[in-house]
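Re: that chain you flagged

S.,

Sorry for the slow reply, it's been a week of failed gels. I finally had a moment to sit down with the sequence you sent. For the record, here it is as I used it:
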Amino acid sequence: MDTQFLYTFVNVVDRGSMAAAARFLNITPAAVAQQVRTLERELGVPLIARAGRTVSVTEEGSRILQRARDLLRDVADLRSVANDRSVSGELRLGACPTGLAGLLPDVLARMVSKFPQINVFIKPGYSAELYGDVERGELDAAIVLEAPFVLPKTCRWEVLREEPLVVLVREDMAHRHPHELLANEPLIRYDRHQWGGRQADEYLRRHGIVPRERFELNALNAIAVMVDRGLGVSLVPDWAQPWPQGVRVARLPLPEACVPRRMGMVWSSVTVRSRLVAALREECRGVAAAQAAA
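Prediction finished late last night. Pasting the structure tokens below so you have them in one place:
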């Protein structure tokens, strides 16, 4: 069985049409259709149901889809292990929301420039679930917040960025004391179910500040827009840019330092893609240093 035909099948499913898969694979739609038909003949079952220009996966195709993905990943691993002198293969990477927007694009731009043979699968998610994915071997590494628990022996962690808490306010309120703002203005609370939100809640409790809560959400960019619109103030980590365009907000440092939120990389020490992970770590350090100096 030609693994290229499996790759074509997976792309047809993921992209929803023969034409879209053909554009991605840089071959003709007829070649895509021929490869899928050949695979169907070899397996003896229909994999794709065609309806005009669109396609859907059959029940039989659904049953083999994940195994096909796993097989293709294993083939990429073989290339990575065999090609001992270069960095290549597929890297399976997770990223929490702020890491996905603020750190990862610059990291990937550097990596693909240096190592054009790599492929990267990216899974967005919250830090807690991504730690579990790395521990189970489903991901090689993830850009996440520092965990409030001890990591298993198979996982490693490196801090890339520290984000102290700041009071986020409209620019015309920047002359006021941070604690006075938190005590008297409506609070747009960073979700207490999230690790960063717990730090903000602990700070308020420690200083005896009982805010007038108005909203609570886990979306830092949305919080910035809401502050800009005059809906309240917020106590949030000083997260990495890019921030929403056009917002006019000020970030006020707290009068008493507290433990910052830490963004970093967790990775599996037993992954076969150790070269890719090492390259990722190097580029993460470079981007983090550049952002800190900016």
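What I noticed first: The first helix runs from residue 3 to 15.

Talk soon,
D.
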